[in-house]
Each structure stands twice: as structure tokens, then as C-alpha cells.
Specification:
Length: 229
């Protein structure tokens, strides 16, 4: 611990940026985690409710219902499909695919490049700090020939390695978090594609029901009765 404190006080021009990057990385990870929590949709609860609203109030009522939601799949994906549903199922499918690729996925990847960048920069800054410290240490060894040599500079060599260690301590959790977030985005994308397909099936079923209701006669015309003689 004393060696680490010595590194912080002696090589503060490397330690302070490393601490700042560590705090920034932790902040971004927590921020992204909170965003992911707010985006989750329980499809097992949502889809039956959505189907009842679609059957009762039609497409317009289902669209209002989705716009009132705060989770991502109803508010962004389903809304995109329902807004153009009157143009046909193919139009709804294209609208949801465009919303997924151009709007939703960029939002899901928000902050992930920054997290990975901090991890890479922290590693390189740590290595730079070690290299610069080692250069200074070897210069001191050369000047101290005959006065103890390497043995007097062993502490300085160990001190130089703290920069690399601090960079790795910062980078490893951030890289791991980045990998987990990318895996979560891939799984969520698969869920959204599945939900989009279910919406197409629900719209198709609703159209068939409306077509059958429109084809069913509302009442038979009274037929003339010929009296028997």
C-alpha cells in the first residue's frame, strides 16, 4: 500500500488521469445498465393485453396504447409498424425493419464505443507511464554506477510497473462490461425481431376477423309469402 501511495504522489501526472478514466468508465457502465433496465419489456404480459386492445379498438386504439408505453418494443418498434399498417403488412414489416436498424440499434449501442475507448486508452496510458518511468530509472542506474547500481533502483523499477497495473485494473472490467453489453444487444435484437413477427401475425389475424365480420350478412330481407289456395 505504501508503494502505491508513493506512486500516486510521485507519478501523479499518470495516476490522476488513470483515476479519472476509471471513474468515467464506471459512470458510463452504470448509465448504460440503467438504460437497459428501463428498456426491458415483458412480452408475456404485454402481448395478450395488446391483442385485446387491437381486437377491441382496432389499429388506432392499439397505436395509442403503444404510444403511451415507456418501454422500447411497444413505443418504438410496434408504433413504427402500426403507423403504416393501413398500407399493408409488407409496409409494416419494412417500417419495423428500418426502425430497428436506423433508430433502435444505435440507441442500444449508445455509450458502448466510449466504454471500449476508455478501456483501450487506459491500457496504453498505463504502458506509456511504465515506459517513461523505466527510462528515467535506467538513466538513474547508469548515473549511479559504483554506488549500489541496480539494487538502489529496484524500488523505482517496481514503482514504474504500477502505471501498467492501474491501466489493466481499469481496462479489464470495462472490456468485460463491453462484451456483456454487446451480447445483451444481440439477444435483445433477436427478441425485437420475434416481437415484430408476432405483430405481423396479430395484424393479419385482425384483418381476417374484420373481413369475416364485413362479409357476414347483417340481416335477411323479408321474403314475400304466397298464400296457398
Amino acid at each position: 500500500m505504501s508503494a502505491f501511495l508513493k506512486f500516486v504522489t510521485h507519478d501523479w501526472y499518470f495516476a490522476i488521469p488513470m483515476f479519472i478514466m476509471s471513474i468515467a468508465g464506471i459512470t458510463l457502465v452504470i448509465w448504460r445498465l440503467l438504460l437497459n433496465i428501463n428498456l426491458n419489456t415483458n412480452l408475456n404480459e404485454f402481448l395478450p393485453t395488446f391483442q385485446r386492445v387491437l381486437e377491441k379498438d382496432g389499429v388506432d386504439g392499439a397505436l395509442r396504447f403503444c404510444r403511451q408505453r415507456t418501454d422500447l418494443i411497444p413505443r418504438r418498434l410496434f408504433t413504427a409498424g402500426l403507423e403504416v399498417s393501413k398500407q399493408g403488412l409488407a409496409a409494416s414489416r419494412r417500417a419495423m425493419a428500418n426502425a430497428l436498424e436506423l433508430e433502435i440499434l444505435p440507441d442500444l449501442n449508445f455509450l458502448l464505443p466510449s466504454i471500449l475507448a476508455i478501456a483501450k486508452i487506459a491500457t496504453m496510458v498505463g504502458l506509456l507511464g511504465t515506459v517513461i518511468s523505466m527510462i528515467g530509472t535506467f538513466s538513474a542506474i547508469q548515473q549511479a554506477q559504483g554506488q549500489g547500481g541496480v539494487s538502489t533502483q529496484a524500488g523505482a523499477i517496481g514503482l514504474a510497473l504500477f502505471a501498467t497495473a492501474l491501466g489493466l485494473v481499469t481496462a479489464i472490467p470495462l472490456v468485460y462490461s463491453h462484451v456483456l453489453f454487446k451480447a445483451w444487444v444481440a439477444r435483445y435484437e433477436a427478441r425485437m425481431k420475434s416481437a415484430a413477427q408476432k405483430l405481423i401475425l396479430l395484424l393479419q389475424s385482425a384483418r381476417q376477423t374484420q373481413a369475416k365480420a364485413a362479409a357476414r350478412p347483417t340481416g335477411a330481407e323479408p321474403s314475400s309469402v304466397i298464400p296457398k289456395r
